[in-house]
Amino acid sequence: MLRKKVPRLLQVFKRTSHCDRQQYDVIVVGGGHAGTEAAAAAARVGARTLLVTQKIQTIGALSCNPSLGGIGKGHLVKEVDALDGVCGRAGDWAGIHFSILNRRKGPAVWGPRAQLDRQLYREFIQSDLLSTPRLTVWEGSVEELMVEEPNPEKPGRHQVTGIRLANMETPISARSVVLTTGTFLSGSLFVGQTSSPGGRIGDAPSSAGLSHTIRERLGLRTGRLRTGTPPRVVKNSVDVSLAKLHPADLNPTPFSFINTQTRCKPEEQLPCYLTFTTPAVERVVRENLHLNCHIQQDTKGPRYCPSIESRVLRFPGRQHQVWLEPEGLTSDLLYPQGLSTTMPPDVQLRLLREIPALHKAEIHTPGYGVQYDFVCPTQLSPALQVKSTQGLFLAGQINGTTGYEEAAAQGLVAGLNAARSALAMPTVMLSRTESYIGVLIDDLVSRGVTEPYRMFTSRAEFRASLRPDNADLRLTLKGFEELGCVSSERYKEAVRVRDTLQDAMAALQSLSALPHIWKQKLPNIEISENKSGELTCMNLLLYNDVTIEMLASVFPESLSPYMEFSQRLKIEAVYRPHCDLQKREMARIQREETMLLPEDLDYFSLPVSLSQEVREILDRVRPTTLGAATRLEGMTPAATVNLLNYVRFSN
Ligand code: FAD
Questions:
Q1: Residue identifier of the C-alpha nearest atom 23 of ligand 1
Q2: Could you tell me if the CB of 253 is within 6 A of ligand 1?
Q3: What is the pLDDT of residue 397?
Q4: In the predicted model, is pLDDT for residue 6 greater than 60?
Q5: How does the average pLDDT of the chain come out, rounded?
Q6: From ligand 1's centre to the CA of 181, what distance in Å?
Q7: Which ranges carry the tRNA uridine 5-carboxymethylaminomethyl modification enzyme C-terminal subdomain domain (predicted)?
Q8: Is 347 helix (H, G, I), strand (E, B) or coil?
Q9: Which helix (H) or strand (E) holds 263?
Q10: pTM (2 decimals)?
Q11: Does residue 1 surpass a pLDDT of 60?
């Protein structure tokens, strides 16, 4: 059952919003993906919370691609949901094409993903915030952060005291403030050779006053990053018969642990299509590079969502994938993922039309780029609080990340801690060993960023145990018992799930039979002849083709009560040995921290599995020890193990 019915109440939402200018516990600035999770989490913890954003109608807006989840990102959505966040439920409501990416690999690295209906997503988020107790939403632009100068007893530490809105003299006070200004801080938009101030198309940048407080008053180090988006194409002008159909999964898997189905019925889902660029696209890009000032600048863009200009320059002569994705159930537009560009609009049209399926394409809105300031995240604590300013928390793209999911995950942690700090409770953190959220925040605050950071499964040391399927067991119980951001209804359900799974695992461990009995009962499974002694159900589950349903046909009385969790149990049983191995590998890396890396290593030709990104970093920095290599930005645990094995065993 899908729990939430969404009324279409945007007008009511606007009317009921009010800002009484009294003291709030928490003020959240910005109603994007970080801000909405921050505001909702702060209110769930019990704080009187105010969300101030430039335009209420853009709360929950998807600035770029209409999709949620994916590899690594899907893990973040599941974890935010396990902590009672909003985005997973919104995804289930607004999803119009669900698929699990990476299915050829193990369930630990599957990427739950959905194409979204933009309007439905926005409506759900807005409606959910409206019905959140203790949360007030106010439309306005924050002009200035109110801060008290450092207390002489705690030199160097400012104290945030509130905000001041544009066109309003009197500040609004709060004990904690969460800044989630996304791409809006000193934002500039770029198309061709023109640029104009803006945070997103149709939206003004964040005020100069806010940048001033951050840089001059608080003395925070900032940097500049960029990103871009493709043109939106009129659906009727695209010949999808010339592209490859990519249907959705037959059985859509909800993001949220409290939903058993998605709003969109399986047969109502819309397809995506795959097509490719041609050599002519590359020619048009190369001939017109001089007309594109965004791409000519040194500012770093997202490595994993590069513009077509960057793709052509980095990988000349290649065909590049272009996904044609629906923008909504009733939308007349398609989103050509892979064609992010900041060329002048007429050049955008020419390059689009060099792709067979798009040879008659009409552009509805041209692609554009945005450049914005971010705050170097090493200045934050693991609670996402600015180390030098008591009560100031930052989350989302302002911390140098890219993506809705990364923003939502940080927003939840910042909002939760802003509330705890305001209510005089100790701040809390999530560790790398228990969550991808912990990996994300640890990477940001301990390594910093030099280019927009996005999540990948390879960034997590404990991939085998940090799976999308078990995020509720990892986080919901802690979320209720220690963090205070999970409802008792969700908690009770997580306890039921945990207890049932524990009972089931114990049963699977205790039920056993001799190999020849198993062979009689399950004749289609090839059980090794060499096996002697009893084989437990747990042993049998390690065989690819063995399901819980098969085992229940052998032990119906003992196992049929657990059929509700058959898929989870199979995954749990298969991953137990991997989890143990991972723990041993991590212990080995820690033991070998001081191992010297040869000075003359040619990282580009090492015959081991290392991504191009990791090879480039290693070659540039040339760390002297394995420990130094592990601390490099972009260095993954998997790469560390491969490097360790190579150096240890190659001589
Ligand atoms: P946003 O979603 O940007 O929200 C910020 C909010 O703060 C807005 O509602 C804004 O109105 C509000 N705000 C700002 N300043 C103030 C103020 N002073 N007072 C009150 N409110 C304020 N992500 C990808 O993963 N891949 C991509 O390829 C990609 N391309 C992008 C292209 C473009 C052109 C843009 C604009 C974004 C792109 N993104 C991309 C980024 C994606 O949109 C962000 O990662 C995500 O939205 C970040 O969420 P956020 O909450 O940090 O900020």
A1: 403
A2: no
A3: 97
A4: no
A5: 91
A6: 7
A7: 573-645
A8: helix
A9: none
A10: 0.90
A11: no
